[in-house]
Write a structure and sequence with these properties.
The structure is a single chain. The protein is α/β, with parallel strands linked by helices. The protein has 13 helices and 16 strands. Strands 4-12-11-10-7-5-6 form a 7-stranded mixed β-sheet, with helices on both faces. Strands 1-2-3-15 form a 4-stranded mixed β-sheet. Helix 7 runs parallel beside helix 8 and helix 12 packs antiparallel against helix 13. The protein is globular, with a radius of gyration of 22 Å. The N and C termini lie far apart (47 Å). It binds 4'-deoxy-4'-aminopyridoxal-5'-phosphate. The site of 4'-deoxy-4'-aminopyridoxal-5'-phosphate has 15 residues, from helix 5.
Length: 439
């Protein structure tokens, strides 16, 4: 084993050589060095603001729903490691992947029957879009090759996903005119409990009617728009989308990469509306946050359509497709989730976040507090600059909590195993971060 690097050496090498998400080169912020993680706690390599352990408010971006270093998940990886960590998926198959695909078909909405396992959420969206376009091409309608979505969405950072992210103010504005031009509806009216909005419904219907001849699919994040702004909308809108898609011969794709596996209070957010999409993307919490893996599910209609075309295959096959280690831990994570009353735990966290975050509204710079399932959002009155971001994060660290604000948002999605005391601590930290950001 080489000599371990000191935290100082590590930070310096990191700054010189390592890209971080949405970061410049060399890096301008000083990332905290994590030494290990267990349960809901991240252990730092050295104290920061006098604190060595942080309660994780982020579940590593929606993924670590059972917390870190979980004995059952560790054992699943260890067991699989002793058999094989990877084999190619072309011409070969194996139990972890087959089991996972069958399980996903069992727990997702009814007509989804076929599963493409890939390596990240963005790739699963690439595959979903490819499925839609190829379906219509195979049916002799190649002109149906655009996607429709609503503003405020986020679907990943590779090419097709970027093209359906919010085109304004988002991270991918740089590429307008370069990306495929998709059709954008206005952002869905805000609020999970928002009543019917006839004007919005008319807008969607009109847009769909106008573009149906060239639309392959509609893609949205159901109920919760995540990295595009952490906004919630009414499940009734999903029923509307289903109806207009059917009316106009357009496929419906739900990106449940963030919402999947219980986060919004239903196992999948589609469940709030009892609506089934034609294609569904899963990722993040699929492996309990242990390894990178995603899944794109589709109906038999879509699969058979593709397989009847001039190129009668789905032309996609990543090297690490169906990775056995990731599939094994995904199986264990799903079993763990379904083996306890996760619904009750998500409700408990929802109640804790509602209680604990409400007070933040008293701060002059807080515009709105919203909570759904195990997701809590405090929206500030303006976007944070680098100094505000750093002040907010530091204030949370002083409270012993890890948060990662973006734009005008302080948001949390704690692991489902977060106890009430740690949950209260997370809420205190969010309030402290909001107060620090306003100074
Ligand atoms: N879709 C949604 C809804 C997401 O939240 C994300 C990740 N933030 C992605 C797609 C992309 O997933 P990945 O980062 O694994 O490529």
């Amino acid at each position: 084993m080489p000599e371990p690097l000191t935290p100082g050496e590590l930070r310096e090498l990191d700054r010189q050589h390592v890209w971080h998400p949405y970061g410049p080169m060399p890096g301008r912020e000083d990332p905290l060095v994590v030494e290990s993680a267990s349960g809901v706690r991240l252990r730092l390599a050295e104290p920061v603001e006098g604190v060595r352990e942080l309660v994780d408010g982020m579940s590593s971006w929606w993924s670590a729903i059972h917390g870190y270093n979980h004995p059952v998940l560790n054992e699943a990886v260890r067991g699989q490691l002793g058999r094989m960590s990877h084999v190619m998926f072309g011409g070969l198959t194996h139990e972890p992947a087959v089991r996972l695909a069958a399980k996903l078909v069992e727990i997702t909405p009814e007509p989804l029957r076929h599963v493409f396992l890939a390596d990240s959420g963005s790739v699963s969206v690439e595959v979903a879009v490819k499925m839609c376009l190829q379906y219509w091409r195979s049916l002799g309608r190649p002109e149906k090759r655009r996607m429709l979505t609503w503003r405020g969405g986020y679907h990943g950072d590779t090419w097709q996903p970027m093209a359906v992210c919010d085109p304004q103010g988002g991270m991918h504005q740089l590429w307008s005119g370069v990306l495929p031009e998709q059709v954008f509806a206005d952002a869905p009216p805000a609020g999970f409990d928002a009543g019917a909005d006839p004007a919005y419904e008319a807008h969607l219907r009109e847009l769909m009617a106008r573009h149906a001849h060239e639309l392959a699919g509609v893609i949205v994040e159901p109920v919760v728009q995540g990295a595009g702004g952490m906004r919630f909308h009414s499940p009734a809108l999903l029923r509307l989308l289903r109806e207009v898609c059917d009316e106009h011969d357009v496929l419906l794709v739900f990106d449940e990469i963030a919402t999947g596996f219980g986060r919004s209070g239903e196992l999948f957010a589609a469940g709030h509306a009892a609506v089934s999409p034609d294609v569904m993307c899963l990722g993040k919490a699929l492996t309990g946050g242990y390894l990178t893996m995603s899944a794109t599910l589709c109906t038999t209609r879509v699969a058979e359509g593709i397989s009847r075309g001039e190129v009668p295959v789905l032309a996609h096959g990543p090297t690490f497709m169906g990775n056995p280690l990731a599939a094994a831990v995904a199986n264990a994570s799903i079993e763990l989730l379904l083996g306890y009353d996760w619904r009750q735990e998500v409700k408990r966290i929802e109640a804790g976040l509602r209680d604990g975050l409400a007070e933040a509204l008293e701060l002059p710079n807080v515009r709105e507090v919203r909570v759904l399932g195990a997701i809590g959002v405090v929206q500030l009155d303006r976007p944070l600059d680098a100094a505000g971001m750093s002040a907010a994060s530091r204030a949370a660290v002083r409270e012993g909590v890890w948060l990662r604000p973006f734009r005008d948002l302080l948001y949390v999605m704690p692991p489902y195993i977060t106890g009430d005391d740690d949950l209260a601590r997370i809420c205190t930290a969010v309030r402290a971060a909001a107060a620090a950001a306003g100074r």
